Amino acid sequence: MNLHALPPSALRGEGMTSQRARDRLVARLAEEGIRDQRVLEVIRQLPRHHFIDQALHSRAYENTALPIGHGQTISQPWIVARMTEALIEHGVPDRVLEIGTGSGYQAAVLAGIVPTVYTVERIEELLRQARRRFRQLGIENLRSRHDDGKLGWESDAPFDAIILTAAGDRVPLKLLDQLAPGGVLVAPVGSPSQQVLVRLRKSADGDVQREELGPASFVPLLGGIG
């Protein structure tokens, strides 16, 4: 297990933000089908309340999505856990690209397992806040960039795995091109009213196999920067 140590100050909390609250969340995730102990342990350690506004701290360890401003949300813990589990099920990738930093929570979960995480966010203010959280938590194996996520991170491609935290009607070809042979991409795909979580596997000769993992509900995947 490649957990990165968090400073004690990051783990302190009281009442609804305490370690006991995180333990209850992890127990619920396990009851609802999350099996990978690496994923559960990272979520047990990571203070989700640091990734949302203080006014919502009392709801931080509910298994629900919460608003983070700019029309975006922090995904429910179950979907974060499920996507991470799907990404590492057949081996931990060395380098992962995340499209849609948002609050930074999904990237931080990945950084607790994966050696190097790259994350791209189109909304500058959200990225600024996420970077501050990464510094406060002492997360050092994570690189971030303000850019159009549909373009990926071409200068550092290919990536062993790619994860999208916003849904389009299809996965941009630009991102599939940046997935290494043998790599895995996990993403929600579909319209705002009907989405499915998919896992794409790229074979050594470039063929892509698609597997549906279940229903999903994410904000739209948008281009450009803000």
Automatic annotation (TrEMBL):
It comes from the Bacteria. One of its GO terms (biological process) is methylation. It is found in: Cytoplasm. InterPro entries: PCMT, SAM-dependent_MTases_sf. Its EC number is 2.1.1.77. It catalyses: [protein]-L-isoaspartate + S-adenosyl-L-methionine = [protein]-L-isoaspartate alpha-methyl ester + S-adenosyl-L-homocysteine. GO terms for molecular function: protein-L-isoaspartate (D-aspartate) O-methyltransferase activity. Keywords: Cytoplasm, Methyltransferase, S-adenosyl-L-methionine, Transferase. The active site is at S75. Catalyzes the methyl esterification of L-isoaspartyl residues in peptides and proteins that result from spontaneous decomposition of normal L-aspartyl and L-asparaginyl residues. It plays a role in the repair and/or degradation of damaged proteins. Belongs to the methyltransferase superfamily. L-isoaspartyl/D-aspartyl protein methyltransferase family. This is Protein-L-isoaspartate O-methyltransferase. The gene is pcm.
